[in-house]
Amino acid sequence: MFNKALYALKLKKRPDVDRSKVLKAFPLRNQLITWEIDDKEEASLVIPQKDKFWVKWTSKIFMLPDKRVVVLDSIGAFVWQMCDGKHTISQIIKALQKKHQLTRKEAETSLFTFIQTLGKRNFIQFAIPQEAKQNQAAVQKPAQKKRFGFLSR
After folding, report:
1. What is the chain's Cα-based Rg?
2. What are the structural domains of the chain?
3. Among 41, 51, 59, 79, which is 20 to 30 Å from 105 by CA?
């Protein structure tokens, strides 16, 4: 929350994310959200209430429900199903193109907007894989050791 205020006041700069890294990211659904798909291919997401004291207290005073339901249309449900941590964003874009006969730009623009909305509401999170250069350097270090460990620096 403090970071949001700093970003809004422009006292802190948001980290730059490269487009190629975004396309390689794996979107993951929030495990607290339960969901089901009906016969119209629409997804119903059931979001539980937060467990904070003031939220429970105000919900009792104003008689608010302990959960809320968000309904996604067929395209949103399709994307929601693919946000399982096994598909990258670029794979989801290709699947949207194929299923709904969209151009790459149309699919990419609409998917980025939808996923950004889901991310802001904490419905999904993103797993960004580490770069291959770091992994290759870690693998090569043990192979570069000298034969006698006590002679190496």
Report:
1. 22
2. 16-130 (3.90.930.60)
3. 41
